[in-house]
Amino acid sequence: MFDALSSRLEGILGRLRGRGRLSEADIDEALGQIRAALLDADVDVGVARSLVDGIRGRLVGEELSRSLSPAQQVVKAVDQELVRVLGGESLRIAYASAPPTVVLLAGLQGSGKTTTAAKLARWFRQQGRNPLLVGADLQRPAAVEQLRILGDQAAIPVFSEPSDPVSVARSALDEATRRGRDVLIVDTAGRLTIDEQLMDEVRRVSQVLSPQYTFLVIDAMTGQDAVGTARAFHDTLALDGVILTKLDGDARGGAALSVKEVVGKPIAFASTGERLADFDLFHPDRMASRILGMGDMLSLIEQAEREFDRDVAEAGAARLLEGRFTLEDFLSQLRQVKKLGSLGGILSLLPGVPKEIKQAQSAVDDRQVAQVEAIICSMTRAERADPALVDGPRRQRIAKGSGTATQDVNQLLRQFKEAQAMMRSTGMLSGLLGGGRGPGGGPGGGAGALAEALSSLGAGGGPDDPLAGMGGAGFTSSDLGGTGGLDSLLPPATGGSRGARAGAKGKKKGGRVTPKSGGRRPEPR
Amino acid sequence: MLALWVALAVVAALVVLTTALLVRSRRAGTADSAVEPDVVAGAPSVARPPPAPPAAPAPPTAPDLHDRLGKTRGVVSGYLRSLRSRGSVDDATWNELEEALLRADVGLTTTTALLEDLRARVGGGELRGADAVLDALRQDLESTLAGAGDASLHVEDGVTNVWLFVGVNGVGKTTTIGKVARQQLAAGRSVLLAAGDTFRAAAADQLETWAQRVGVDLVRGREGGDPSAVVFDAVQRAAARGNDLVLADTAGRLHTKVNLVEELKKIRRVAERPPGTVTEVLLVLDATTGQNGLTQAGQFLEAVGVTGVVLTKLDGTAKGGIVVAVERELGIPVKLVGVGEGPDDLIPFSPPEFVGALFDLA
What we know:
heterodimer, A: alpha/beta, Rossmann fold, 434 Repressor (Amino-terminal Domain), eight-stranded mixed beta sheet, disordered C terminus, B: alpha/beta, 48% helix, elongated
């Protein structure tokens, strides 16, 4: 999410770092680059202008703080402006006093309404509600069929009838009352804002339903048209918010930055993957720090609270702390992590993850998790507890059982051993403990420890990778029991000179950019 | 690849563990209000953002882009019309030109390049006045769009032609195939459809509706099955029955998903097996697409050798200016333009019409 914009901004701000003072020309140049980055991210032309003007205003008008370096002041100004444009806190759903609470979805064709309807229904059920999906898209061939299949997958009932959208809406209300469903999620046909007839139809559907929430579904890959579309739907339907879809591509998400500013309605939800679980409330207030590459541990924790089996997670944690983390534990934790969505999604939430890991990750398909799972599942319990048992014949059996090559099995075992050694190292454990058990161990502390672990893992970025390693400090790679082992954990393309770099890394930590000292930002220890 | 995955998995496992600790410490103070684990959390739920525009039957017409887009003109043309009357070209004029191009999704790089060139020509005295600049811009855009070469759709005689339709989710691939089938049928070809989108729920049903509507046959497989197998079957059947054109749908896929792109390569390889010959790989791009469209085009080009672009949904308010960047940087010609929901609202691309409609410079 926002990766492209994020890394561009990091680059621009990084170049300012280390300057004693910034001349007006320096600032102009940086602002020009920021504008270019915003436009390339499909931020609305007008919004980009207002953002850049705002940043300039803060830099020129405000009393410059002595405690911040010039570069830090720019970062702070960018952060403040992003927060302003994104606006406010996340949506809090207020349910109708007389059920059902009706949610109406509208949007252009192909924006992802039908899938979003199913994801939203699933989300409401997680909130303890009984949703009913309503298929009012009677235009696109097989749209209702698609909704039924998705409803089946999520085990949520679907209602539709072959009449017209307005009657479907009317009957759906009765159906909801009859079946005792308290949330109604209505999928409508995609329509163009200039199609007056269809816009009128959706207005009539809305009148019948008088929805508590009307959401516009927008594809995150939308360009400059996003704002116009949002405005047109808002004029017709009085939107309560926007749902952004397909944020898992390399979509720049400019729409997210533009819609609030222009329409005055926030992004309510965002969909970040193809699975029904890849969907959550959008937190505008946390997004700025994410765009600036500072991660978002809060969202990760909330997601984990919702999706994880607590006992399994804690059992795994306990075993890790005792230094008895086996492949069996690894497998069960892996399955937990899978519930959270794609690895890319998780990594983007973590503060201070080295850019190289993030980039390398985008080349990985999450389906490979299946291969790892298959290998471990093909082992006996004894082997999982003690991989040293695995000899030649066993290796062959495991490879056969999992449909992989013996080299794959070897590789997994070797890497697990290395990872195990790393996890046993006292440095990392105490880091993790510091986050969880220390007296002041809130999310911030944990984030710091984790970021350290991560930046040690990834060995930071190159010299021109200014913000990577932001969270990592006080850890030199030697704490982790040899960087040689770590090298093999990295993708081959970048693994070459890693050891040397990692060694030098602990020393080049000066002059970090510190935009604000919220709990989210990891503090060096 | 596996190596990398394991590294990440370890990282992720650490996340879990830390999270568990954090959850515990967070909850220590509060009452224990464990969130119900969701019943289907672990179920392999697949869901892809949906698809294509609905298709309402409309009387066959031969729409002219300029007429068809009449409603949508205005946003951009407003800027340009006000420039018309100006004699001199000052900074404000350049800024307005830039904004007009950016608002049409042409993108900053392409916009800057186009305008720098014009600036130089104004500086050199070649162009005088806003009118001359606008005309030159129009010509530049047209020649860029025409420069990528042949915009016709290729069919070879004596082989089973396969046209692959690729693109990200929700751009209108399935609907486009329905319309292309109808046109090719009208052009006297014998067409067979291959429901290669085995992933999206009910995608094959959607194509089946089109097949019936148009009156062609459809080869479909199991939902979740191997799309290459569907395409292979379709080619075999087409060859056996003497169909000369197979239109193959594929599942929408983000160009960033490595395995899905590999799957697409495989579909192409299978389609190339004799008697099949892939004569077109059409990238379907949605006119609302922003700068991401260039990345999409680049990656699909690299993976399966895109031969042309179908620009859909140009009847809305979106301008589709990204195709200028796609042509300029990647040399992929636009071949078809979708301007409405009717079966015949898919028309050959014409650079002058497109540019005229884009900026209402006519």
